[in-house]
Structure formats: structure tokens, C-alpha cells
């Protein structure tokens, strides 16, 4: 481990973290993970590195040096931070920090020891503090030498008394790949895990599962024997994440029943396995997590806190063609594998929305390989989650830096991830194939009143009835060319011989309408039906997002709109997305029209000639209905529609689709 007191400083970042009472979630020999006081995330995403004396939150992306950590939390300068830290430590006051009296009381945590507080800092500094400010400061001799002067002893915290555990240098890529490949060959996939991967939630086939090398984690009692088998086959285990030297002197693997699940290999563009994630059977939850929180679902296979172990890092996962001209970037290894199988496109996956730094060398290599377009395909919460949006923007800047174009992919926001969306599309396609006669659920009259067919459809219905009647009659009527008379024209004389009740039932006509047709013909019936339908103009407004912009109520219900501080949808944040006409029965009220729009556009967008929508109708959209009674506006609130006030003149004008940006082009 490196010098905990860098460049003559009388303290290190461990002292600063202890002083600020950060909530520690897990400890490692050269670092620890705490809750982030800047974004408020309570999953232990902020890493504090003792060797380099730096910190970084893997969720919000904030980071810097130890003085910047203190300065930003206390809204002060790096110089003042230096003095205050020194004074507090010299006075032995390790319960003070952030200037909040209530934070002086310490609490004990059960996951790592040491005195901790259950509260997070409430204030975030607004003045820009340099991430490595201490490196630019001139040494302050009275403080810098304090540690060396006789009689001056800075307090040592419990963290500083921990025994340093020797860590191994990471093995070469070839050694890591060899060990992991042989390990996967020794393992199997349980029927339960295979069934999960083949379920509607994941949608993989047996051959795809086997090709990706998914395996179930082994029981803990097999760890030693697995390591010994790998050693006998010539593998190097020192420096391979997940393997470590047991206190009794033998090599073993770090698997446990608590972390059981599915092993997901992280494969580089060179085809080598760089690391492995575990999709946990039971997500990790902290006792302080809110009831509705799902917990941590994925962890890396790592041995960083063990003797001669090593951290997993956060390798980038690659699935597809290394020479593809278009590459999609998403978050989550398994998500990328599923999306690759469903679309046939090339996918790159990072382990977290803001964990994009490992992506840079791969993008540089892709640019050399001829990649021209990078498509950011993060989850749809990028429209409402500032942290996800930040990672999305970083990807675009990175792609442009290497001479590639970058576009942001959006889709039906009813589905969070690109894998969820693609699986939904496949289900819809499969359902359509199984029910090719869906439109026939509606009879002729119903379809006619909805503008789905003309009078020609009635001819076809009559044709079908005549064929059914004469199916067993060799002397059926026919014209000179062999065609049915009904196919040539629709005339009142052509219903002769047909059962009137069957005609009425099949066409959906009333007895009166059928009588008009028999007496006066097709035109009279058409006029009668036209009087029973009307056209209603509708417009759909959707939120317009600039690059990196988020809207807190995006794709959420009306209660979230209120929580965001709005009484009505802010029209200035919207764009006209569709302007068209809907044909419907004349007696329909707004509720029936809105339900029809939801059925039509809840999973697809209008055709280009009818308008353009960025995504299907979804929560936070606003629908305008216009007819002889005036204009009415409705906020899409899940499956419901809430009447609202809206100022359409403040909304942005309609944009035509740009090739390559629509989700439908995936």
C-alpha cells in the first residue's frame, strides 16, 4: 500500500473520510466504498482510494482529491479545508465535520467496523474546488512537519490500525482468460438458471445461452478443489479476480452461498474474458434500504479484500462484430447480450451509467476499425435521471472526440431497457402471427365506422358467405369468366338465396340497415352508415429533450408532475409530435376516443404521412382533441387520461424524423 500521507501531508484521505463520518458499506485493503454525500445514493457507490488519496462516486461521477472532498462538503476553499482538517485531527476531534451538530453522534455499522454515522451530509458546496487542489497548494511547513515533530501526535483512527492485506498485481489478459475459460468448463448451469434465461423476461435460446458461456456459481465447498484443478492444468491464479491465497496456505476461489447466482462473462473485443459478473439469486439489501428498493442485483467476481487477491476492475463487455460501422452502447452485460441476440447489432456494455472511463480505449480502437456511428442506448430513465443522462452525454462527447458520430436512441418508454423493448416487440410480432385474423374480431360495420375499411370490404364479406353457401353446390352462380357475381359489383339482387340473419350477423348491420340495402342498394346503405361516424382531430405533444437534459416527471404519472412543482404540464417543454384525424362512431365520447388512441399508438407511432412521434404514446404525453365542441387536453397518466390545461402555442413545432434516430430503425 502507498504512503497514506502524500507529499508531506500530515493526514490522508482515510482521516478525512473518518472526520466527515461517511457511511462505509464495505472495506478493502486499499480502499473502501461509502454512500455518496453529493448525489445522496445510499448503495455504497463512492470509492475512497487510500493509495492514491482520491475519491470517486461510480453513480454520479463526482470525484477528486481529499481536500476537494472536504471543501465541497463544507463549501470552503482547499486552503481552509487543509487547516480545518489539521486542527480537528490535532485536537483529537474525529466526531466533527460538515459543521452539523447532529452529526457528532456516532453509530456503529455491522459491515466493516469503525464508528459511523447514519446520517448523510446535508449541504453540498457550490464553490468550485479543484479535484486535486492539494497538489497545487504550496507546502505549509508548520502543518506538513507536524507529524515529524517530537511531542506532536495526530490521532490514529480505527481505519489506520487495520492490518494491511497484501494484494496481487493483476495477471495478464491471456492468464485471466485461460483461468476463467477453464473454470467455466468445470461448471454447469442449473435447470432453474437456464429456465430463467429462457423465460419471457430474458428471451434467450439454449444455443445462445451456451454460446455466451453462462454458468451457475459453484457451492463454497468446491472452491478449493476448483482452484487446485486449475493449477494442475497450468493456470496462474495469482492476479486473477476471484482467486486468493487462503490463510492456511492454499489457493481458493471466492464463491459463497450468499452471492450465488449466474456467472456472466465480460468479454473484450479481442474475444478474451476480462472479468465475470454474478447475477445474484437474492439481491443484496442494506437494512436501511427503503421497502420498495430492489437491492443490488449484480456484483463482480472479485478477491480484492483477500490475501494476494485482486480487484475485478470494471471491464467493458463486447458482443458483435469488431468491424461494425454502427455500435450500440448500453449499461449492463446481460442486457447487451440479449439485445445483440434480438437485433443482430453490435453492442458494448458498461457496468454502470457513469462508469464510462473504461469505454474510452475501446471506442478509440473501434474508430480505427472503421466504426462511424455510436448509438447511445442507455435505459429510458436517462430522460428523468440526471445521473444516467450525464453518462449518456459523456459517451457522445467521447465518440465525437474520436471522430465518430453519436446519436441517442429512444423507444417506447413503457419499457425501461433496450432488451425489454426488443423482447416486447418480439412478443407483439409473435402474437400478430398467431392471430392473423385479429381485425376479423370486429365486423364490417365496426371497422367501417372506425375508418378501417370501405364498402369494398362488404363485397368480400358477401363473397365469403356465398362461397360458404355453395361449398357443396356444384351449380353455384358464376359469370362467364368464372368469377362470383358478387365480386364484380354489390347489388341488392345479389342477396337472393342468402340467409338474411347470417348476413346481418356477419356484417354487424341492424335489420333496418339490411332492409335499406336490400331495397335501395349499396349507395343508400353507405349514406346511412356515413351518418353514424365522424372525424375527430387529435394532436399529441411529447417532451422535447436537448442533449443531456432531463425532466423529473418524464414518462411518469400526473402525481410526479405535481411533485416536480407543476400544476399543469409546462407546454414550453413539449413538442408537437403528431397532428392527425381519427374516424370514430358519432356517439363516442372523449373517453372512447382516448382509449382508441391508446390502442392505436400505445405500442407504435403514427405513419409518416400522419405525423411523427418520437416514441409511442406514453405517460407524460399530452393529447389534444378538437371537434365542434372545441379543444380539450389530457395528460397521459398510465392507462388513464387526466384533463389538464395546456398552452399549445408555447410548445415547439413538429420535427420531421431524422434518418437513424428513430427507435423503429433499430
Judged by helices, strands and strand pairing, the structural class is alpha+beta
Indicate the overall shape.
Answer: elongated
Q: What is the count of helical runs? A: 21
Q: Spans of 5+ residues with little confidence (pLDDT < 50)?
A: 93-161, 476-493, 657-666
- Order of neighbouring strands in the sheet with most strands: 1-2-3-4-5
Provide mean pLDDT, rounded: 79
Computed over alpha carbons, the radius of gyration is 33 Å
Distance between the termini: 48 Å
Residue fraction in strands: 15-25%
Number of DSSP strand runs: 23
- How would a textbook summarize the main sheet? 5 strands, antiparallel
Q: Helix amount, in percent? A: 25-40%
Structure description:
The model is unreliable at 93-161, 476-493 and 657-666 (pLDDT under 50). The longest helix has 17 residues, at 418-434. With 666 residues, the chain is of the alpha+beta class.
What is this structure's SSE topology?
Blueprint: H1 13-19, E1 24-28, E2 31-34, E3 46-49, E4 54-57, E5 63-65, H2 66-74, H3 78-90, E6 107-108, E7 115-116, H4 133-136, H5 141-144, H6 173-186, H7 191-198, H8 206-212, E8 215-216, H9 223-232, E9 243-245, E10 251-253, E11 261-267, E12 273-284, E13 296-300, E14 317-319, E15 326-331, H10 333-343, E16 346-350, H11 359-369, E17 373-376, H12 386-401, E18 405-408, H13 418-434, H14 444-449, H15 456-469, H16 485-488, H17 500-507, H18 511-520, H19 522-530, E19 533-543, H20 558-563, E20 574-585, H21 590-601, E21 622-627, E22 630-637, E23 640-644
Parallel strand pairs: 15-16, 15-17, 17-18
Antiparallel strand pairs: 1-2, 2-3, 3-4, 4-5, 6-7, 8-11, 9-10, 11-12, 12-13, 14-16, 19-20, 19-21, 21-22, 22-23
Amino acid at each position: 500500500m502507498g504512503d497514506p500521507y502524500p507529499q508531506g501531508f500530515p493526514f490522508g484521505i482515510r482521516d478525512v473520510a473518518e472526520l466527515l463520518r461517511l457511511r462505509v458499506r464495505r472495506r478493502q485493503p486499499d480502499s473502501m466504498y461509502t454512500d455518496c454525500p453529493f448525489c445522496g445514493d445510499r448503495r455504497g457507490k463512492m470509492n475512497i482510494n487510500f493509495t492514491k488519496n482520491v475519491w470517486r462516486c461510480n453513480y454520479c461521477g463526482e470525484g477528486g482529491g481529499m481536500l476537494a472532498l472536504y471543501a465541497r462538503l463544507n463549501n470552503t476553499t482547499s486552503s481552509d479545508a487543509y487547516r480545518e482538517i489539521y486542527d480537528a485531527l490535532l485536537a483529537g476531534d474525529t466526531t466533527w465535520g460538515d459543521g452539523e451538530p447532529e452529526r457528532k453522534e456516532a453509530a456503529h455499522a455491522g459491515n466493516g467496523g469503525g464508528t459511523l454515522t447514519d446520517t448523510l451530509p446535508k449541504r453540498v458546496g457550490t464553490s468550485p474546488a479543484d479535484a486535486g487542489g492539494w497538489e497545487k497548494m504550496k507546502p505549509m511547513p508548520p502543518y506538513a512537519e507536524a507529524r515529524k515533530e517530537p511531542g506532536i501526535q495526530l490521532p490514529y483512527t480505527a481505519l489506520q490500525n487495520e492490518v494491511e492485506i497484501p494484494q496481487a498485481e493483476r495477471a495478464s489478459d491471456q492468464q485471466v482468460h485461460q483461468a476463467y475459460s477453464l473454470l467455466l468448463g468445470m461448471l454447469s448451469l442449473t435447470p432453474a438458471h437456464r429456465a430463467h434465461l429462457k423465460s419471457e423476461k430474458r428471451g434467450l435460446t439454449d444455443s445462445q445461452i451456451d454460446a455466451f458461456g453462462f454458468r451457475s456459481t459453484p457451492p463454497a465447498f468446491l472452491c478449493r478443489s476448483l482452484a487446485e484443478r486449475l493449477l494442475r492444468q497450468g493456470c496462474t491464479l495469482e492476479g486473477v479476480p476471484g482467486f486468493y491465497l487462503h490463510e492456511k496456505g492454499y489457493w481458493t476461489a471466492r464463491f459463497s452461498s450468499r452471492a450465488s447466482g449466474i456467472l456472466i462473462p465480460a468479454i473484450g473485443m479481442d474475444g478474451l474474458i476480462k472479468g465475470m459478473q454474478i447475477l445474484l439469486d437474492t439481491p443484496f439489501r442494506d437494512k436501511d434500504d427503503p421497502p420498495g428498493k430492489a437491492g443490488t442485483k449484480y456484483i463482480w467476481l472479485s478477491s480484492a479484500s483477500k490475501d494476494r487477491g485482486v480487484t475485478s476492475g470494471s471491464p467493458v463487455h463486447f458482443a458483435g462484430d469488431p468491424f461494425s460501422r454502427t455500435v450500440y452502447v448500453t449499461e449492463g452485460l446481460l442486457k447487451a447480450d440479449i439485445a445483440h441476440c434480438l437485433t443482430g447489432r453490435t453492442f458494448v456494455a458498461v457496468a454502470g451509467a457513469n462508469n464510462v472511463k473504461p469505454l474510452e480505449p475501446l471506442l478509440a480502437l473501434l474508430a480505427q476499425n472503421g466504426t462511424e456511428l455510436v448509438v447511445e442506448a442507455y435505459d429510458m430513465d436517462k430522460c428523468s435521471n440526471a445521473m444516467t443522462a450525464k453518462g449518456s452525454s459523456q459517451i457522445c462527447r467521447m465518440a465525437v472526440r474520436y471522430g465518430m458520430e453519436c446519436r441517442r436512441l429512444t423507444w417506447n418508454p413503457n419499457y425501461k431497457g433496450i432488451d425489454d423493448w426488443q423482447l416486447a416487440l418480439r412478443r407483439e410480432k409473435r402474437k400478430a402471427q398467431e392471430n392473423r385474423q385479429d381485425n376479423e374480431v370486429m365486423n364490417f360495420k365496426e371497422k367501417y365506422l372506425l375508418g378501417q375499411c370501405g364498402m369494398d370490404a362488404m363485397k368480400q364479406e358477401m363473397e365469403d358467405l356465398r362461397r360458404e353457401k355453395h361449398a357443396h353446390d356444384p351449380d353455384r352462380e358464376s359469370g362467364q369468366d368464372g368469377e362470383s357475381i358478387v365480386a364484380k359489383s354489390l347489388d341488392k339482387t345479389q342477396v337472393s338465396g342468402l340467409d338474411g340473419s347470417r348476413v346481418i350477423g356477419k356484417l354487424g348491420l341492424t335489420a333496418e340497415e339490411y332492409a335499406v340495402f336490400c331495397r335501395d342498394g349499396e349507395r343508400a346503405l353507405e349514406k346511412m352508415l356515413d351518418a353514424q361516424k365522424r372525424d375527430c382531430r387529435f394532436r399529441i405533444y411529447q417532451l422535447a429533450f436537448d442533449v443531456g437534459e432531463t425532466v423529473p416527471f418524464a414518462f411518469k404519472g400526473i402525481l410526479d408532475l405535481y411533485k416536480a412543482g407543476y400544476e399543469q404540464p409546462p407546454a414550453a417543454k413539449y413538442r408537437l409530435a403528431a397532428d392527425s384525424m381519427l374516424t370514430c362512431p358519432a356517439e363516442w365520447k372523449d373517453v372512447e376516443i382516448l382509449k382508441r388512441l391508446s390502442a392505436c399508438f400505445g405500442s407504435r407511432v403514427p405513419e409518416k404521412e400522419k405525423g411523427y412521434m418520437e416514441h409511442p404514446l406514453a405517460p407524460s404525453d399530452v393529447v389534444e382533441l378538437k371537434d365542434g365542441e372545441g379543444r380539450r387536453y389530457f395528460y397521459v397518466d398510465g392507462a388513464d387520461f387526466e384533463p389538464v390545461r395546456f398552452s399549445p402555442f408555447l410548445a415547439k413545432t413538429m420535427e420531421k424524423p431524422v434518418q437513424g434516430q428513430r427507435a423503429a430503425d433499430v
